[in-house]
Design goal:
Spore Coat Polysaccharide Biosynthesis Protein SpsA, Chain A; 8 strands; 2 domains; 16 helices
């Protein structure tokens, strides 16, 4: 082997290490932490009279909005009011929302989900809400979610995130894999962070903020992944998000490839842009002594799991003994993560069945890379994921 080739391979090995190390550490630490039990705070304080406002951003959601609102207005101890932000709607979303018991806030003009949320938050606070909860229009919530959020905020939490899982996880292999992915991203990881005393993160659906938090950190985030952006701003302000592991919001997962590609591009492209914008600010804060920013930085730098695993496979076939050992350990951590994530479902064996979709998922993922790259541009527009009923109509 020539010296030039050896240098090239060494540089390649270091690059693979640098790209995969953040998620390798995240998977190992958070998977182990998530296994340990955690005592949730007792719901001792009365929430009678506590004013919780639920903000539901909606764009042409006439097929789903009534079911969403009705799930939010089940009988509960706390006082709750649902505000549906009808953003550029040209269907019957507003009428169906009112019939279901919600108040409608019409909003017109350009902008993404972040703009709709800010509009709803401002209106709710002006009417005296003690806290706001975000639930997507394609979702339903567990019967205890409203009271669980109210108890947590009344008990002193500044911000909370509930479980966010798939409502249609068994529709097909695609949604099964998406459901397993949500168990990892939205249950295992925040549970692990919670066990370690870290902020659990915000996932765009099923999160709540106290009125005081919104006054300190207004919701001006309007990127493609405004939830992640806002969480980073909360961390800058010293506000941590608590995880409510005992309450769940169930969101619809795309069952058709085009809709799934739109959602995936927005998630991954948006994270790539924030990675570019926030890495150095977080790194500087760590150098300034803020060790609490280490985990958020690792999370920001972490690649998508399939990309991460693919790079580990490449690392494992290179003729570099230390890199092969690292790749082997990294793949073991991936397996640990998947198994623990599946164990958090009601039927772990059925959750693991989703892995049968991986061979078809990998080439599909490669085909979505151009969309993700476009979504990572600073001028990328927020594009709503087509709902399954809409996709089915187009397919007919």
């Amino acid at each position: 082997m020539t010296s030039a080739l050896a240098i090239f391979l060494d540089l390649g090995a270091l690059l693979l290490l640098g790209l995969t190390l953040p998620l390798t550490l995240e998977l190992l630490v958070l998977s182990i932490a998530a296994i340990f039990p955690h005592r949730r705070r007792a719901d001792e304080l009365s929430i009678a009279g506590f004013r919780l406002a639920v903000v539901v951003p909606a764009h042409n959601e006439q097929r789903l909005i009534a079911t969403c609102v009705q799930s939010l207005l089940r009988e509960q101890e706390s006082s709750v009011e649902v505000f549906v932000v009808a953003h550029n709607c040209d269907d019957l979303t507003a009428e169906y929302a009112v019939d279901a018991g919600a108040r409608v806030l019409a909003l017109h003009g350009p902008g993404g989900k972040g703009l709709a949320l800010d509009h709803g938050f401002r209106h709710a606070l002006s009417l005296g809400a003690d806290a706001v909860l975000v639930v997507d229009a394609d979702s339903i919530v567990s019967s205890n979610l409203i009271d669980a959020v109210a108890h947590a905020i009344r008990g002193g939490a500044q911000a909370v995130q509930t479980r966010y899982q798939a409502a249609n996880g068994t529709a097909n292999l695609r949604t099964r894999l998406a459901a397993l992915g949500l168990l990892g991203m939205n249950v295992l990881r925040p549970r692990g962070r919670s066990r370690l005393g870290l902020s659990c993160g915000i996932f765009g659906n099923g999160f709540a903020l106290s009125a005081e938090t919104l006054r300190r950190v207004p919701y001006t985030a309007n990127s493609l992944v405004e939830d992640l952006e806002y969480h980073l701003r909360l961390l800058e302000a010293g506000i941590f998000v608590e995880f409510l592991d005992h309450a769940t919001v169930f969101g619809e997962m795309p069952e058709h490839a085009p809709a799934a590609a739109t959602q995936r591009a927005r998630w991954e492209g948006g994270r790539a842009l924030l990675r570019w914008q926030w890495t150095m600010p977080l790194f500087r804060r760590i150098l300034g002594g803020e060790a609490r920013m280490i985990e958020p930085l690792l999370d920001l730098l972490a690649l998508p799991l399939t990309t991460h695993a693919s790079l580990l496979v490449i690392a494992g076939v290179l003729h570099c003994s230390w890199l092969q050992a690292y790749a082997f350990a990294g793949m073991l951590f991936v397996v640990l993560y998947v198994v623990v994530a599946a164990s958090l479902s009601e039927d772990p064996a059925d959750a693991l069945y989703a892995l049968a979709a991986v061979p078809a998922y990998l080439p599909w993922k490669l085909l979505t890379l151009p969309q993700s790259r476009l979504a990572s541009r600073t001028d990328a527009l927020w594009i709503r994921t087509p709902r399954n009923a809409e996709a089915a109509e187009k397919a007919e």
